Amino acid sequence: MKLLLAIVQDADVNFLMDALTENSYRVTRLSTTGGFLKKGNTTLLIGVEEDQLREVLNIIESNCKKRNTTTTIINPSSESSLLTNTVPIDITVGGATVFVVDVDQYIRI
Ligand code: 2BA
After folding, report:
1. Ligand 1 pocket, 91 CB below 6 A?
2. Which range marks the domain in which residue 34 is found?
3. What is the pLDDT along the chain (109 residues), one digit of tens a residue?
4. Whole-angstrom Cα distance, residue 48 to residue 2?
5. Residue 100 · residue 48 · CB < 8 Å
C-alpha cells in the first residue's frame, strides 16, 4: 500500500476531492501553508493499493492546474537587507506536488 501526500492549490481541491471520491478513493483533507509564498494550500492524504497509484496520479493531474503569480523577494544583488529593497519575481505554482510513501500497516478498527 502507498500513502500519497498531495499538496494542491485551494482552487482545485473541491473538484479533485469529488473526482477521487466518485472513483471510490478515500481521502483526508488538511489545511496547510506553503513555506515560500506563506499562503494557504491543501494537503490531501490518500491511501491506495499499488495498482491504483497510476490512476490516482492521473486524477490529480487532470484536476490540478498550473497558475502563474508574482511575489517579491529581497534583491539578491543588493547589499542592503531593508524590506523595501525587494524585486518582483514571476513563479508558476502547481499543478500538484505529490510525495508517495510506503505504508507499513493500514489499520481500520
Ligand atoms: P510554497 O512553498 O508556497 O511555494 C509556492 C511556489 O513558489 C512553488 O510552487 C514554486 O513555484 C515557488 N517556489 C517555492 N520555493 C521556491 C524557492 N526557494 N525559490 C523560488 N521559487 C520557489 P510548487 O513547486 O508547485 O509548490 C507548491 C507548494 O507545494 C509549495 O508552496 C509547498 O507548500 C509545497 N511543496 C513543494 N515542494 C515541496 C517540498 N519539496 N517539500 C515540502 N513541500 C513542498
Report:
1. yes
2. 2-67+95-102
3. 999 999 999 999 999 999 999 999 999 999 999 999 999 999 999 999 999 999 999 999 999 999 999 999 888 776 665 656 889 999 999 999 999 999 999 999 9
4. 5
5. no
Q: How far is the CA of 92 from the centre of ligand 1 (A)?
A: 9
Cell 531593508, residue located:
82
Q: Which of 73, 89, 97 to probe ligand 1 with, by most ligand atoms within 8 A of CB? A: 97
CA of 88 to the centre of ligand 1 (A): 17
88 lies in some domain? no
75 in any annotated domain = no
Residue 53, in any domain of the structure: yes
Strand partners, 7: 43, 97
Instruction: Determine which residue's CA is closest to atom 14 belonging to ligand 1.
Output: 36
| Ligand 1 atom nearest residue 39's Cα | 3
Number of domains in the chain: 1
Whether 107 maps to a domain, the answer reads no
